[in-house]
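Q: Okay, next protein. This is Alginate biosynthesis transcriptional regulatory protein AlgB from Cesiribacter andamanensis AMV16. I've checked the sequence twice, so it should be correct. Can you predict the 3D structure?
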Amino acid sequence: MLQDRTYEVLGDSKTRTVDVRVICATNRNLEEMVARGQFREDLFYRINLITVRLPALRERPGDIPLLVNHYVRNLREIYNRPELEVAPDALRWLREQAFSGNIRELKNLVERVVLLSPHQQLGIADFQALLQPGKHQQQAMPLQAGNGSLPLMSLDEMEKAMILQAMLLHKENMSKVAKSLGLSRGALYRRLEKYNIPHEAAH
């Protein structure tokens, strides 16, 4: 089908034609894989007519503020926070980060911060608290809330707060809750059991 745009349905001797344009995406070096015998050479030359290389996000840091502002504009409507914005110093700080997960990691980070932070203007501390798992999260600064401040939260307390906030915002639609938190439904339910959160607890 890729070579001459024809195919036959199983059990039918009639040849059919198809008019399609095939677009493939990969994060692997297919030429090297062909040389190592790990990818079919004939398939490679059938799909490799025109190659477009998309540089990693770390190679185009100037795109980061544009992407962050784009995500925030969408999240203002989703979470009904029309005054939400990112502080200029936070945008500059984000430009300096190496997002190994590229755009997906950046988008996930922005939505997590919007879910957890009570601030209308998101600052560096909001992003630092959630940028990387493990030791970096343990060094997070105290979260400010209204006219007072919350004590430094443990990672478990922070995760539980995020889950409850997401459940409230998405009216306990568990598919949307899991997606907004970057979790599978199974992983979300395991966390609900871990923190003893019944569905109605979000209310």
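A: Here is a summary of the prediction. Confidence is low (pLDDT under 50) at residues 133-152. Residues 125 and 141 are 6 Å apart (CA to CA).
Q: Noted. On to the next one.
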